[in-house]
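Deliverable D4.2, example record:
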Amino acid sequence: MTNNNYQDVTPDDFNGFEDVPTYDEGGATSRIRPTDTGDVYQRSGKAAPTEVFPTSLSQPTQSIDPDPAPLVAPVAEPAYIEPVYAEEPVTTAVDARRGTIDLGLLILRFVLGGYLVFHAIQTFFQLGAAEGIAGLEAQFGAYTYGNVLAVVVPTLELAAGVFIVLGLLSPVAAMVAIAVTGFMAAHTAASAGTGFNPIGWGAEVWLTMILLGIALAHQFTGPGFYAVDSGRGWARRPLASSWIFAVLGIAAAALMWWFGTGINPIA
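Output generated by the structure prediction step:
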């Protein structure tokens, strides 16, 4: 059974037509065909059916690129990594307060540097009871280069004393102070005839030994905060430089004694 097209003619469309089929009493039918089938559609007001033929489907042609673009592999998304937070190290606060240490170092510098400056000026200008350069030449008369030592010793005392009082270039100034006080300590001990026997030392020998000890202490402590070198590392926390310049100062004192006096300090 096929469905009629909505445009097909139905029996109702033949109402009012004279050529509609009639039936007799015996059940036979007699059909009167219309003379013109076009009249049926014209009378019914419907369009005649049209037969639609399928058209051939044209396949689209695909052009081939002679130089195809290279295939790019898809970039995989980076895997999420859970961040690991390092624990902050526990630091112990260090008390940076120095109390009266810097004041004590200032007094120490004034004592050592002030004595060296005063003794040098007294020698150069023959002030007070000082015998001046001539007196030093007489003291060093038995040495090979006594006249040279008479000028070198007060000169080194003056230079070291000024720099120590100012707190300027403290490692170098302390090294020079160690050299000159070490030489004078050896000279006074040799002149007293007691050598390095502390029991026989007089006040003059003890004074030069104390000055040598203060110069060494100043080398290892630094000038402190109240100094021109207060911003330097060696001013408040000297490390390797103290040992280096201390050894150099002792070596310089030994060389002054050896070459200046002509006496072997080791013998």
